[in-house]
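Working notes for the structural subgroup meeting. M.R. asked for a predicted model of this chain before we commit to crystallization trials. I am recording the input and output together here so anyone reviewing the notebook later can reproduce the run.

Input as submitted:
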Amino acid sequence: MRPLLWVHRVTDISLEHLWSQGYRAIVIDLDNTLVGYKLLEPAAPVAAWVRSAQERGFSIAIVSNNVRAWVSSVATLLGIVTFVHSALKPLPFGIVRAVGRLRVRRSQTVVVGDQLFADVLAAKLLGIRAILTDPLVTAEHHAMWAVRLAERFMLLGTSRFSNPEGVKTREEPVGEEPARAQPP
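Returned structure, recorded in C-alpha cell form:
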C-alpha cells in the first residue's frame, strides 16, 4: 500500500509534472494536509499552491472526515467549490462523490493526504494514485500516535520524497533547496 509519491508538504508536489502525466483533478485531504491541526486557516504557501493548481486548470475537491462547517469554511477561503465532509475515510465513498462531482475519470485523479490508512488506502481501494504528505503539525490528537506508529512501520523501506518517475517534485529551480523543519 505504498503511495505514488511521499513528500514533505503539498507545496513539494510539482503541478507541472502531474499535468504532464495526464492528471486533471486533485482530491485533497483537509486536516494536517492543507491546514495544520488546531490551526484556523492554511498557510500562505499552501493557499498559493492551491491557487496555482486552479490556474493551471486542475479541478480540486476537498474530502475530509471532518464536519461540514469546518470543511466548507476552508474550501470557501481557498476558492474550492467541491468538497465532501464526513467522508468516513478509509471508506472510498467520499472520494467517489468528489470524483463524480468533478466529472473526471479516476485515471485522471490523484488523491493527496497525510494519512496512509485513510487517504492513501481510500484512493487505493478505487485504483486511484495517491501522494502521501507528512503531517503539517506533529502535535496531533493523542489518539493518532498509534496510527502514526503503524504508518511508519508500513512505510519502512520507502524513501520520503520518493519519486518513481525520476522527475523533479517541486516547482523550484534545481539546486535551490527550501529550508525545512526536521521530520519527527
